[in-house]
Amino acid sequence: MGFSPATPREILLVCLLLAGLYLIFVPGRHQLLPVPPPLSPAPQPLNTQEASFYSTRLSWASASQVPQTKIIAHVPGWSIIDRLYIYQGVVLIVSNEPHNVPNISAIYSKGVDIEVGEEAEMARLPDDTDIRIISTTEARALFGSGAQLLDGVTYLVNDPPQYVRHYYHWAAELWFGFWRTYSSLDTSISASGNTTIPPPRRMWFNRLDAFRWRDYSTMNQWIVRSSFPDLTMEFIDDWDDRIKMGVPFVLERVVLADRSAAMPALNYQRYQRTAAAAFGLPGSANWWMTIRNNVVQFAGLDPEEGAGTRRRPVITYISRQAWGRRMLIPADHEKLVRELRKLERAYGWEVNVVLPEKMSRLEQLQLAARTTIMMGVHGNGLTNLLWMKPNFRSTVIEFFFPGISTHSRHYTCGFAHDYEYTTRALGMTHYGFWDDAAFTSPDIPLPAYPEGFQGNEIPVDGEAVAELCIQRLTLEAEVDDG
């Protein structure tokens, strides 16, 4: 008798059995549906070297093995230091040759507010509770067998909030001075801003808290986050945390800024700018391009914006007429705007008359990056000259109050170095105006703040300003750099 035909139920059971065997014994086929390929290549390990423990401690067995502090670069107020130790709130320089260490008062101070007078100056000088030089033997006795390591580059700011909370003092002094100091380690920075030095890893304020570093215009944080997006920040609470731990810490490399320590420097005495002291160090002509280009890219523009002398110039007048302080005479402001508009019609140049307080931070950065000539009354709005692209036509024009003595009829004209020095430090040209009289380096006056300097009756001759714009933008010896 033959086999009877298979029933539908038996056929189904056999199929299920075969499918199960297939899934079990055929390698690499453990899913019924194919796995889609990744959208991008699989990430590679950040470190392909042999695995090891993180280096969190600098250790030694004897005093002779304690790593000594090394001063890499120094001018008053600005120092690059390797292996700077901190223990219970005191900065410690470990050296068996203390005579080779610069005067510690030119490195570090008590970090208190800057007040006028000899007594105030003496009160800012450091003592043993602030900073000390110790030998390796003293370090071994004080630290024991090691110190906790903060690796990478640290920006350490030993300043109170007094000046930090102002856009100009933050960007054009502190940030400016930090990078001018640190970039002295690479004197071949290219025009594109490429550099061999690694970015700073952290910024540490030991005199102020996290609520007192931002400025009223909220520009400080824009500059930090765009210059170094992964920079971390520590403040006085973090400093206090480390003090309470009772253990020593060592900064692998620190760029140390101290306003009080910078003030006796010759360049500070000449220009009243703490960053000026840092220019005693070597540096590339393109030193600032690393920061400038990072900020401009962050603003969504090509770093080459504003480059070249053959492109359409951009004139930007930073008006303070709605600010309520340090403003032009209204009629002079209106005439200046008319004269600039004439240039726009006659030459096809782009003219912008702007109120910074009415612009977003992004708009301010974008406009500054494109600007060829920036002008305005002495004030915070001119800080954005930092983002201009230096070339042969790049110019800053600043309006000052020409004061006058009613007794001798002798003029004491107002002037401050803030934007004049910053402009020249970037390789651009600066002109000051007292009404219809222009001046530029090397014929610059001494700083003066006559009555009316902060007032709202500052005169300026719009025709003279427009004529200077024509001279600057139609240079006979123009060089085509782009």
TrEMBL record:
One of its GO terms (biological process) is protein O-linked glycosylation via mannose. It comes from the Eukaryota. One of its GO terms (molecular function) is protein O-acetylglucosaminyltransferase activity. It is a single-pass membrane protein. It is found in: Membrane. InterPro entries: Glyco_transf_61_cat, Glycosyltransferase_61. GO terms for cellular component: endoplasmic reticulum; membrane. Residues 221-391 form the Glycosyltransferase 61 catalytic domain. Pfam families: Glyco_transf_61. Keywords: Glycoprotein, Glycosyltransferase, Membrane, Transferase, Transmembrane, Transmembrane helix. This is Glycosyltransferase 61 catalytic domain-containing protein. It comes from Mycena albidolilacea.
